[in-house]
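Entry:
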Amino acid sequence: MLNDDIDKLPAKHRANDPSRDQRWTLRTAAQLVAHELIAEDMLEQIEAVSRKYAIAVSSQIQRLIEPSDDADPIAAQFIPSAAELVTSSDELEDPIADAAYTPTPGIVHRYPDRVLLKPVHVCAVYCRFCFRREMVGPGSKSLDDSDMDNALEYIASRPEIWEVVLTGGDPLILSPRRLRSIMQRLDNIPHVGVVRFHSRVPVAKPEAVTQELLDALKINKAVYIVLHTNHVRELSHEARLACAKFIDSGFPMLSQTVLLRGVNADATTLEQLFRALVAMRIKPYYLHHGDLAKGTRHFRTSIAEGRQLMRELRGTVSGLCQPTYVLDIPGGHGKVPVGPEYLRRREDGAYTVEDYLGKSHIYRDSVDTAD
């Protein structure tokens, strides 16, 4: 449905004339009320949320929501809640310390061989659990030409940088012309071997995956697309077609998922998601433990719960379907695997190993090693 098509919708869907950029996107509490996505008596509270954290619900995401289901996992991710106004003492404005590792605007250089390049700080939709929720949204500063020149010069001047990860915001909301310029400049940096995109666009705005966009991303280096998706219902027919366009054009795809209470924090839901992704030719890459972003406590599970879920998945789905469960250490110290442990060293030098059923077995190394 194009922008002009909104005028053909029933009256309740035309209420407040939702913004007409990129089909239509709901951006205010009043629009959410008009579209029956929140109750009218919640208007004041959700307006308070919107003054702190941006709202954007694309037409594609709206179609996936079941308004009659109070526990709808799609609505939980994108429709603001009064719970976001509650901040616990352990929550942080910048949970993984991007700012501390930003040597020049648009660059985060946390690991020696790779950097984040953040050309834009807006998204097609705004996730209610986002760890960059204090930095993204309308009015956030994106890179101007001078900032982009400086960011790319930073990458070019450091031969240790092998991988560039475009994130933000969502880099795939940029115009093909802008993306083509960035990609060609990265292609001309000899020591850059891999370019990776992290994006919600195939799920939230699949119509943006055009041939022009695909052509803009094609360079001589390896280019990977990492899809952020948290529930199998996000993988609509349109989203699957958008992902297939990337893969059929030669772009390998991975996925990352955030473990979220009320969305996917049970083994059956995760199994459905990961099986569907693999069937789409997308390898589950990371399952993120929820970050300590302000106003997101109601989404977070314990690490013990996450470990148990990963243990349950070990016995029910193949390795192709299993991501690495990771914690991004607060303070910018990087991601580490925090999944269940299956191996313990014994006093006699052998190991006790647990299988996926929880049964223990003894294993002795065939190669002697010094203690």
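The first strand starts at residue 25 and ends at 26.
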